[in-house]
Amino acid sequence: MAYWLMKSEPSSYSWDDLVRDGGTEWDGVRNNAARLHLKAMKKGDEAFFYASMTDKAVVGIMRITREAQPDPKDTDWVSVRVEPVKAIGPVTLKAIKAEPKLAKMELIRQSRLSVAPVRDDEWKTVLGMAG
DNA sequence: GCCAACGTTGGC
DNA sequence: GCCAACGTTGGC
């Protein structure tokens, strides 16, 4: 199973919105590198929900419930379906940056990438920091 | 094919 | 509010 990190601005779609909805179509990604990651996702993979801008923290775990298909809003792009697993953390960007084991996270290396892979050891490290 | 200009993201 | 990073566009 693979792990991922997906960003959302709480002002447009928050973790609470996801819990309320019970699952959502993760669409609107308009970046080629992010699209490649979406296409690589398999049903059952897990992903951190990263709340950007206001929180700047990992606040929950999601599960991929359907693999990539054309984004209904623009079929040049793709979307996956996700559901909330549980709230964690928050593990802040500040804490992630302060942890040497996480220095190579894509979140850090390419801060603008909205869908990024997470390595197994990084996943465990972040979970450990969530307490 | 190069690169300057511009737009967007997102941290600070 | 500012600006760095990055992607895209368009003139040449």
UniProtKB/TrEMBL annotation:
Residues 2-129 form the EVE domain. Pfam families: EVE. Signal peptide: none annotated. It comes from the Bacteria. This is EVE domain-containing protein. It comes from Sphingomonas sediminicola.
